[in-house]
Amino acid sequence: MPRSGDREAAVAEVSRPGSPAIGPTESTGETRVDLAATPGDSAVRSEELSDDSPVPRSCLSAFLADLAHHPAVRKVGSWIRWLGELGTAGYNPEIRRRLLIVNLIAYLIAISTAEYTLQYIQLDPVKYRPLILINIGLVVMALTVPGMHRFSPIAGGMLIVVSEYIAMMTISALLGRSGGVHLQFLVAAAAPFVVFGLERIKLVATVVILGLILHLVAWFEFPSEAALIRADQEFLDALYIQAAITTFGLIAASVWYAFRLVERARAETDSLLRNILPDIVADRLKSRPGEPIADSHEEVSVLFADISGFVALARSLGAAKVVNLLNEIVSEFDRLAVRHGVEKIKTIGDAYMAVAGLPEPAEDHAERLARMALDMLATVERVRAETGLALQMRIGMAAGPVLAGVIGTRKFSYDVWGDTVNLAARLENLGEPGRIHICPLCRERLQHAFEIQSRGITDIKGVGQQETWFLLGPKQSK
After folding, report:
1. Structural fold of domain 293-474
2. If the chain, 478 residues long, is cut into consecutive pieces of 10 residues, what is the mean pLDDT of each piece?
3. Could you count the other beta carbons within 10 Å of the beta carbon of residue 305?
């Protein structure tokens, strides 16, 4: 059976419904709060606020920002992150993220179990001695989880599962089902997916099924009258409430984390797709993944730009400097494309291709591209002055009909082709460094707003001889 293309797979991933993303990021651990105020915020005047007025949102934001950047809060945050990352070194980011969650679960187990231990000690240390010992053992287990990661990425999670299952069955036998400890087996319906991941689905299924079996056994085998420790009903009710809260909280957190990962993956894929394709085309692919994307456009403007003499320059600079230089120039071109409403199509080495007037038609397509072309020359001139390198750029512009669409299934791209594209490429090749070489139709569309100089008759391959022009710049207002 033929395999689906990567394009459909990527689009299908983007189209999946998502929900909130969780999980730790690979950041510095600092908390940042956006303090950008809306116009309405700035319009609020203190004299208009009465004693009964609610606190403005900007004041709350400022308070939260100050709190987040308080040295004590930042120090606590860094300590929590350090504790969470214990034992995760050497794993890839995805596994480290999962192990961080396992560590946090272990610390929560240690804290909550220590609280239970203190309750038992306060009530009756002799009567509840077995429970105290079990809980101390769970605290020790939880604190050793980070050290288990060095053996295997699942060792810490397995330690938690085995220890918790044994402890919950033992406590259920001691207190009976009225204590509600058996409820915590229900966490096994969700948490193993977070702790072990879908790639270990057999292990996850085993943990889930075992949790269900143990829950049923605890319910039927340990009724209240069979409890080994006769505890007060008020105490059992309190334990049941705590167990119910813990169970619902852990299940909700596990589901939230899972949906958060889905949303995070969807957002990353969507961002990648929109970096490759225009937004409208990306939306069409998401809504109809298997349908070919091909459009004809009656009139657009196409630009080809090439840095003259760059190959020889690259030999003397070395790979690292060449990449840094190209990245600086192309990144600035990308910003210019966004500023002028132009669609970048691709780069090939030191060549840059852009189109105005698609995928959405624009009446001023030629003007948009002309302004961008002039700014591109200015950018190269600025870099030349800053670096002292002999950089010059030839630009060719042509206007006319084109076809556009998404090509390929692996490393697919949005491309444009037709006679207009070929003409723009040849005008660039036949142009002069530091100048913008344009076709007759471009001249017709631009002459009202730009200074244009005739180059004379040019012999263009595939077209023949025709008059071409150089774009000099915008007309000066009188």
Report:
1. Alpha-Beta Plaits (3.30.70)
2. 44 42 38 38 39 52 69 80 88 89 91 90 92 94 94 94 95 92 90 89 95 94 91 89 90 84 80 75 73 82 88 77 88 93 87 90 92 94 88 92 80 82 92 92 92 90 89 83
3. 26
